[in-house]
Amino acid sequence: MENRRRKAVLAAAVFLAALSGAAAQEQQGQEHQPLEGVWDISVTVRSCTTGAVLATGRVIQMFSDGGTMTEIADRSNRSAGLGTWRHLGGRSYSTLHKSIEYSAAGTFNGTTVITRELELSKTGDEFTATTTFENFDANDQLFNTGCATSTATRFE
């Protein structure tokens, strides 16, 4: 009888531990999804010194497993951007990508390098970000730097 009771208590303990672990995993999943996926992003270009709004725009970014990313902007004079992303810890990530700029006539005009620091929401369905960008001319000479903020929603 004592042996059966021990087995029953042990079985109950194992069951409760498994149930508790599954609940913790489910709660973790609700609090945080990984960055991978497609995002619809509203960008606000700002003065780096005053924070004043200079321009607004939209981009779509795709973050792939393994740390690569692709961006398509709402500007016809810019190529798709290609780059990388990395997890900094918690809900924080950083990205680095580059795109090619074209003149109105369609000739190569230079490149833009964009660095973004972003923070996912608790649900992982939104993020906010701060951005810096560097514009290089056709001879790879830096001629402009800028700042931006953005908000994003996961596209599903």
Descriptive terms for the model:
156 residues; alpha+beta; Lipocalin; 2 domains; 1 helix; globular
Question: How would you describe the overall organization of this protein?
Answer:
The protein is of the alpha+beta class. It folds into two domains: 1-31; 37-155, Quinohemoprotein amine dehydrogenase alpha subunit, domain 2 (Lipocalin), CATH 2.40.128. The chain is built from one helix and eight strands; from the N terminus they run H-E-E-E-E-E-E-E-E. The chain has an eight-stranded antiparallel barrel. A hairpin with a 2-residue loop joins strand 4 (81-89) and strand 5. The longest helix has 30 residues, at 2-31. The protein starts with a helix and ends with a strand. Mean pLDDT is 86; it is low at 4-31.
Draw up the topology in text.
Blueprint: H1 2-31, E1 37-46, E2 53-64, E3 68-73, E4 81-89, E5 92-102, E6 108-120, E7 126-137, E8 142-155
Antiparallel strand pairs: 1-2, 1-8, 2-3, 3-4, 4-5, 5-6, 6-7, 7-8
Q: What is the name of the CATH class of the largest domain?
A: Mainly Beta
- Please provide the ordered H/E string of secondary-structure elements: HEEEEEEEE
- What is the first-to-last residue Cα distance? 56 Å
CATH topology of the largest domain: Lipocalin
**Low-confidence runs (pLDDT<50, min 5 residues)?**
4-31
Mean pLDDT: 86
Please tell me the CATH architecture of the largest domain by its name.
Answer: Beta Barrel
Total beta-strand segments: 8
Secondary-structure class: alpha+beta
Q: What is the number of independent domains?
A: 2
Shape type:
globular
What's the CATH H-level homologous superfamily of the largest domain?
A: Quinohemoprotein amine dehydrogenase alpha subunit, domain 2
Radius of gyration: 23 Å
Percent helix among the residues?
Answer: 10-25%
Physical arrangement of strands within the biggest beta sheet: 1-2-3-4-5-6-7-8
